[in-house]
Amino acid sequence: MRLSASLVLYKNEPKMVLKAVESLFNTPLEINLIVIDNSPSAELSEIFSNLSNFKIDYFYQDGRNLGFGKGHNLALSKIQNSDYHLILNPDVYFESHTIIELIDYLDKNPDIGLIQPKIYYPNGELQYLCKRYPSFFLLFARRFVPQYLKGLFKDYLNWYEMRDTGYNRIIDVPYLSGCFMLFRKKYLDEIGYFDENIFMYLEDADLTLRMSQKYRTVFYPDVWIYHHWAKGSYKSLRLMLISIRSAFYFFGKHGWRFF
Q1: How far apart are CA 16 and CA 47, in angstroms?
Q2: What is the pLDDT at residue 231?
Q3: What is the distance between the alpha carbons of residues 31 and 121, in angstroms, rounded to a whole number?
């Protein structure tokens, strides 16, 4: 069983990156990791120079930030043979059996193209990252409505995050998070990779939606990962503007839903 994985970096915390990579290679499979480093300098390359016993191909982009999707696409273009491919964030970690169990479920269900486990914060709090098709209002409310007013839309926001499912059973999900996406590689090759018109944000929604039009996209709660989740667009004006631009592109491509 051949597993490939891609990791896109941008000025990440080295210890966090190392923990993600060690989690991956603790999995008892043949693994080929492609690393695309979009950082201004190649400081993170030192992490991989100390991991020479693993099959890791590191590519520094000479200070150019290709973005999330384009970075992963570049990694995917370098993969020769793979049965499954993992889109991996540098801020996650997990146990050695996690990927094994996900692949086992994929093997038993050939109609599934994409699978994702349950996701927790490091403190054990559940992250509600399964989502229904977004609306313009939902994205606006989540980003701009003050916390003290969000209670007015609590039921609607909870519905969008699929909290009504309980996150305790296997379900088909139209929008899975890009922090940890395990694909059947031949299906991913078939539908195409990330849309490079999206620099960052909603590229995972676009890819999940396109996959779901041909194959199932599934949340599998019996194994889990831990995700630090920085929520960068809430802290940076530049990232906020990028997220707005991505939303306009996404709705222009897939159809506007205002409420």
Answers
A1: 11
A2: 59
A3: 26
If you average pLDDT over residues 71-81, what whole number do you get? Answer: 96
Q: Give me the amino acid identity at 204.
A: D
pLDDT at 141 over 80: yes
pTM: 0.95
Half-sphere exposure of 4 toward its Cβ, with a 13 Å CA cutoff?
A: 21
Distance (Å, whole) CA 122 – CA 50: 26
Contact of 71 with 38, CB cutoff 8 Å: yes
Q: What is the pLDDT of residues 39-59, one digit of tens each?
A: 999 999 999 988 989 999 999
Residue 100, pLDDT > 80, answer yes
